[in-house]
Structure formats: structure tokens, C-alpha cells
Known about the structure:
Layout: H1 2-15, E1 48-53, H2 54-60, H3 65-72, E2 76-78, E3 96-98, E4 107-111, E5 114-115, E6 134-141, H4 145-148, E7 155-161, E8 168-178, E9 182-193, E10 196-207, E11 216-228, E12 233-247, E13 257-275, E14 279-298, E15 307-324, E16 330-349, E17 355-376, E18 381-392, E19 396-407, E20 413-424, H5 428-432, E21 444-457, E22 462-482, E23 485-506, E24 511-522, E25 532-540, E26 545-557, E27 565-578, E28 586-593, E29 612-620
Parallel strand pairs: 4-7
Antiparallel strand pairs: 1-6, 2-3, 4-5, 6-7, 8-9, 8-29, 9-10, 10-11, 11-12, 12-13, 13-14, 14-15, 15-16, 16-17, 17-18, 18-19, 19-20, 20-21, 21-22, 22-23, 23-24, 24-25, 25-26, 26-27, 27-28, 28-29
Amino acid sequence: MRRWNILLSFTLLLSGVVTAQEYKDTLQLREVTVSAPAKTKVELTPLTVSIVNESTIQESTQSSLLPVLQNHIPGFFVSERGFAGYGVSGGAAGSVSIRGVGQGNKILFMIDGMPQFAGIFGHALPDTYVANGVDHVEVVRGPSSLLYGSNAMGGSVNIITKSANKDGVKGRARAMFGSFSTQKFNTSVSFKKGKFGFTAAGQLDRSNGYRANSEFWLANEYIQSHYEFNNNWNVGANLDMTQTKANNPGTIQEPLIEMWTRLFRGTSSVYVHNNYNRLNGGIQAYINWGSNHVDDGHAPNADPRNYIFRSTDYNMGVTAFETIKPWVGNDLSVGLDFVHWGGHSWNVLKENGEETGTFRNHENEFAAYLMTQQSLFADILSLNAGVRLQHSSQYGNEWIPQAGFVLKPVNTSSIKFSFGKGFRAPNLRELYLYAPANPDLKPEYLYNYELEYRQYLLSNKLNFGISLYFIDGKDMIQTQMIDGRPKNMNTGKFHNKGFELDLNYRIDAKWNVTANYSYLHTDGEILYAPKNKFSLMLNFNPGHWNFSVENNAIWGLLTGGPLKSNYDLLNLRAGYTLTTNPVVPITFFVKADNLTNKHYEIQYGCPMPGATILGGVDFSF
Length: 621
């Protein structure tokens, strides 16, 4: 019944404006500044793409990107276990799913195109996806393996960092304080003079958590520089580092003492970028590394563990790509990728520091891809097709096809259709570590079919879209009992299908409304992938004031417990901006989440906090 109420709300909202539609002769794509060259423009692909810009991220006052993406992107969901921090190891949260695909790291996260995952275990690192220093985020809802290879099976999230693009000094800083002794600080500054640009950002989060033994802290540092030789060539380098410590109190049913994870993550790259009328591309070399300490804790009446788990990991590679315009209306993207990833794990005895249980391994992957897009009939129709060949030292060759079209019957509407394959290679843990290990595993893969319709009205003040999809997943890695022992096997399969709605309407200079809804039907049992997800955000900006109200509803969510979770959260934010002379905007704000104090769980046995309040100050120069 609730689903039909939401669909009715969308219908009523649209019916009030359709009769007043206006058309512009052309639609302008949003221009963005990136700190590293992109493999291709997202508008060249027939996949469903969402872009979350800097203003949306800043207005949310979130220090982590994941809650912002969850609220603004239909079909995107993040598991949570508490107020602050996601953690890794046993009981960790932060798994991301898109359209029900995501368990086992099937969504690839990138920072400026650099893949982010722990090499030895191949999992995502949610605490490192911070909001500070971000220009925008590009989310592809559907397989992105044609461009990015493994781990982009269900979609991709590319975090594009800020880059200085205007001469002079520009900066921003924020401080927040609130519930559970939470403190959040972040700052960023950029400098550009002539051909040289430099950006630096830092962030510090601390919280006692709302449950005993759930303390969390995080520090992040980011620096980026670039040099423009001329209008056609530029070079750059960046470095991003994160340090975290997250305590895990366990579940209500099985509490833990002294369960904590301490991580150090770093990622860095150098690149060269060319930009001509008929050529655009570059080459990028990167490395992503980490050092991890984990104490898995113990039950209240049990003896403490006598060791600390240690691991180091790395993920390094080179990617070269070029988009060529061989003739009018055609874009031809070609690329080569090389990735070397792996790691080392062991246990350190607390008593004497002795090292035991050492494991060390690595994998190499090579890939080449080609994608072409041809515009026809004065850009009314664009045809897209591509293929990728990926070779691994472990599983051999994998072919990845993709095809589709974009139809624009008028300047204010578009229809996209795409067919694509996505895959995820088994990680080193699944291949070689622990009892279920199986070195003969092959990649998981899926075939995705989707159709999107998008409409712009009222001189682009209103845009809305609907997406339909069908996903056929095969060879999922599952643990089965073979000859009396557990063993990882390529035996699983699933079918997901559903639809997504999204809407943005800038009513006038003061009022703006954004909404999205997604429905997922699956023939299997998928944790942390809700059947229904709805978000509604209303912003009101009268002069120096800024108010926003947000409603987020989830129902039909499997948490790992006996019952499905359903909840409806109300969040409010208010801010007031002062100006001084010279003009330095200073904003004082307060935000209240879960204002109605709802009691709910996302992970079974981990109750989420009730009403929380944070307030602070934000200024820019």
C-alpha cells in the first residue's frame, strides 16, 4: 500500500506542471573540472548515470559521502551498524548495493579514476570515502566493467576531487559538535597562479558512539597539484591518506569487548592529460596501499584473544586511454589497463610479538578495451557499442561486451537502452585463505538490460526520469559443504528486476524539491538491499536563511534477523549566513536526524541511534 502512495505522490507532483511545459532549443551539459583525465565522458555511455555535485554534498553537512549518495540516488543503499564509522573485519558495515547487487564488493569505488579496494581481501573501504575536498561524484547504476574491469560488476562510483581552476586563493572550513561527544572538523584550500594549481584538504572526526565500546575516530589528508603546459597538455599528481580506528561492540545478542580495527590507507597517482579538438585522453600511474591492525575481541565471559591480526595490501597499475573523433558524429574510445594487486597477512602474538600464520600472494591483470559512439540524424540517435578483453594470471581471459543507444526525439527528452556484462574476479581470501578457499574459482558475472526515459520541462527547472532494469547473475561465489568441509564454489545465480524514479524541480529562487524512489524484486534473499526505498528533500532559501527537510523511508530490508526492517526517518537542517567586509560568508547551522526518534536496525542486533543533533559553523574565502 505504501508503494502505491509514493507512486501517487510522484504522479500528483508531475501533473501540476506538465501543462505548463516550455522547451529550450538546446540542452547544455554541466561542465566540471577534474583533477585527473576521465576515461570517457559519462554522456557517451548509454548507462544510467547520476551526478552528485559539490553544493549538494556541502549542504548535507555530512563528513562521509555514503549517506549523501544513498539519499540522492535511487537503488543505492549502504549498510550501517551505528552512529559513526563502518569498520572492517567481523561485523563491519558499509557494504554498498546498487539495484540489489553489491555483496562481496561488486560495486567499484574510485578516487579520480583510481580503484579503491584492499588488495589482499578485495573489499571496499567505506571509511575512506570522505566528503571533504570533493568536486562531484559520478555514479553508474549498472555494470561498468567495459571501462573499469573487475569489481564494477553492479556499478561504479567515481569520486572526483577538487582542482584549483581560478587564479588566487580559495578555501573553506567547517567545525561541528553534537550528540555522543561528536566532533567533526574539515578544511580545504586551493591556490592557482598562471599555469600552476595546488589544492590541500584535511578532515578529523571523533565520536564516543551511542553504545558502549563504539568509539570512532578518523583523519584524512589530501593534496593535489597540476601544471598546464598549454591549452592542450597538463600534468598532475595527488596523494590521499586516511587513518581510522573503529571499535565494534558486537550485536545485542552477542556483545564483544575490545573488538577494534585500526587502518592506514593511502592512494597516489601521477598523470599526463592531452586535450585537442579531435583527441582527448591521457596516461595515469597509481598506487593504493594499506596497513591494518585488527583485534577481533572476545565475549564478556571469554578470555581475550592472544594475538593481533595484521595485514598489508597494495593495488597498483597503469591506465592509458584516448577518445578520438575520426569523423563527424563519432567518438572512439580505446584504452589499456595493467593492475598488480596483492598483500600479506599474519598474526602477532600479544605476549612476545612472535609472527604466525603468514600468507602472501598477488595477482596481475591486463586489459584492452574499445568503445564507439556514432551520432545520427543531427544527434537525434546515438548508437553505442564496446568490448573489453581482460586477462588474469589466475582465471585467464574474460570478454566484456556492451551495447546500447540514446534517442532524443526532442531537445527536452531522451530515451536510453543498454545491454552490458559485468564481472567480479575472486579475491585472494576466496582463493587461498581460510577453510573454504578454492584456487580454481572463476569470476562472477551478470548481464544487465535497462531502459531509461528522461524529460526536461519548464526551461529545465524540472527534470524527471524512470529507469527499468533486468539483471541475470550467474556463477556467484558461495560456500557449500563438499566432502564434509566448506568450500567456495561458483554455483550461485540470481535475477533482479525493478524500476527507479527520480525528480528534481527548482520551483523558484527560494524553493527546490528533489525526490527518488526505487523498487527491487529478486528471486533470492539479499542482505542490505531494500525492496522499497524512498527519499524526499525540500529546500527553502529565503535570503540569508536556509532550511531543508528530508524524509527517508525503507521497507522490505533483510537485516540478517528473523524479521524484515521497515523504517521512516525525518531529518531537518537550518542555517543562517552572515557576511562581513571583505565578504567572507559565515554560516551557522544545526541539523537534527531521526527527529521522531524511530527505533530500527539495518544490521541485525545493531540498533541504530534515535534522535541526534549536530551544530556548527561553516565559512569560506
